[in-house]
Amino acid sequence: LELMDPKMDALGSEPPQRSVAELLKDLPVDLAPGPAIIILDRLLALEVSYHGGASLHDSILECVALRDPATAALSDASPASKAVAQAANLTLWVCEAAREIVVAADIFEEEDFATSTTKVSKAVEEARRRGRALPVDESVEDARLQAHVALRRSLAEAVARLGAERHALQDDGGATDRARNALDQLDALDADHSDGDATIADAWFATCRDEHATTRGVSPPQGGWASSDERKATRDACRQLLRGLDRVWDLRRCLASLRFSDESTELPALPSVDARRCEHAHSRLLRLCLNVGHQSRGGGRFVLPRSFAALELGGAGAPLRKLLNQDDFGAEASATRLGRGPKKASVFGVVVDSIVSGGAPNCVVQCRAGAEFASRASLRVLHVLRAVASANRARLRQQLPGLLLDWAQLVEDARRADMRCAEALRLPNEHARYLGTWALKYSLLLMERTLALDVSLELVVTPSDLEHVFWYREYLLAARSTLAQDARRQRVLLRDSLAEQPDAPRITEEERRLDALADARDAALEASLRGARCLCRATHLVCAARAARDAATSDGGQTYVYASRRTRFAKRFSAFACFAEPAPIQYEAYESISLKQRAACDDIPTAAAKFFGDAAQLVDHAIKLGKTAEPVLYSTADADDLVALKRVAVSNRVGLARADADADPPPKFALDLAAHEDFPVVKGL
């Protein structure tokens, strides 16, 4: 800080800001539909910035229409002014409800949500007071104004229904669909604003003084409303927020539908479940948690859906963080209840269901060693579910190395528990890895997520780094595919052995239907894993070919300013070295294996195109398996993910067919993550 510096003292030399009452004397209160529409378009952009992490003063409170007495004056003016006042009150209600949910969940970071660290200004206190009661519905004549008001009211209804604890309903009553319809109507009715209307509307956005304000107002954020492209981008951001709320509903319905959930508050007894009826509740929960913050299928950067998901998974943040830090044996974590609906499930029940779904017989989780391991594993499962559902992508990538270290210890714990279970139950040696296989499966999922975030966050962008990432990801997918095949074989062996017992009951048609459903589920999983492996192999081949081409066209070969290829490879995959299985790959082994894989291809573009085509066929097969009367896939977001994978495979294959191998200089290399967040469409092949 330098005293008397003109830059430092510029704020003190500014004229004092006017109050709302002073501004209102010069504002046109009787608005026509044109200026009113511009005000609401610009306010929508400010609402998006608020949900994206901006403070009240830097977002919606830049609009004078949201401050008393301006709102009251608009309510007694023209019909268009009344529509602006109604939308302003609904905006305040949604923002206040969102703040209460976010603060209650307490999972936000400084980039997710802005809270006041000093005394709250009078304007914020007034906004919160007015935002606690849902405004009454009033008729609006103009179609565009009606769509703006309907959008705010539908969003308010969606947030209100989702925020209701122990709500018997398992949907939002069509609120998000009505909000999307309002956005579609705004897209259809969008028109360029006239200069005169824009001048009148601009007067309603200004910095103003309020009592006890801790900071002076800043200039209103620019963008998001001035052009048709900016308004479309703002509405697309609203659609993303609505998708995040839909994914929370998927999560709530999943928790309420678990067969071991109940209405009691005590820890349920060990469930005796049938492996054929298990639909991998743990895997489904993990997938749905990932979808909540997914960039294309969920809420992306918005913290409100992630806060709702965190409340579904164990409640408020501070007490649960204390529990996770102090519960060494998993006793409290295993008894934690999941879900805010009328039915709740324990984390312990989710873990037991997941172990049995992996092919383990009931006796493994019912013996003392298995039950104690399930209790300890509950702590790790709850920690992962909370982190995946509530952390933004950058923070999740930062937390994953620590989570991987915890799961490496859990894998070793599972190995010892398997030995004790085998000794207590007198199981043969080949059946003594039920718990270890389960722990390793979810460890592999965390490793894959680490590499996927490296790509989606653009931490790796060069062809030489991408060839490492996708080769290693194929290696992890191969290990997970082997585990899935082992689990499927164990399930079939258990089913056949039970059917061969002398006192086995007669198999009914319902039992056969459940067997067919379980077989279709496993077949869909296997097809999707094989499709993902083909995508990784093809992407590795094209990235390796592009890296070799860049090295050949540069002077003296490709050079690395900061670190060599060996060092970069070792540092990138160092977090996986804590696992003994699958064995960590050293750089020399990678070079040897990858060179043999490329040497086996007569022509790399042709081989990569074949792999992309195989991936499209396998993913399409998985999609068809899911289209049954009782779907294998739980939510529409899962089907959308498979469709996106197929789109990536087809787009890359078409790009290879159109690529010019002799272009000089080669086209610019780029990744397009618009189709899928984890698998890119490679451009500049």
Describe the structure.
With 685 residues, the protein is mainly alpha-helical. Helices cover 61% and strands 1% of the residues. The protein has 24 helices and 4 strands. Strand 3 and strand 4 (681-683) form a beta hairpin. Helix 6 (143-163) packs parallel to helix 9 and helix 18 (434-456) packs antiparallel against helix 19 (463-499). Mean pLDDT is 80; it is low at 211-220, 263-279 and 628-635.
Give the structure's gist in a few sentences:
61% of the residues lie in helices and 1% in strands. By secondary structure, the chain is mostly helical. The strands form two sheets. The protein has a two-stranded antiparallel ribbon. It has a two-stranded antiparallel ribbon with strand order 3-4.
**Approximate strand percentage:** under 5%
Major sheet: arrangement of strands: 1-2
Number of strands: 4
Topology as a string of helices (H) and strands (E): HHHHHHHHHHHHHEEHHHHHHHHHHHEE
Radius of gyration: 28 Å
- Helix coverage percent of residues? 55-70%
User: Can you summarize the main beta sheet?
Assistant: 2 strands, antiparallel
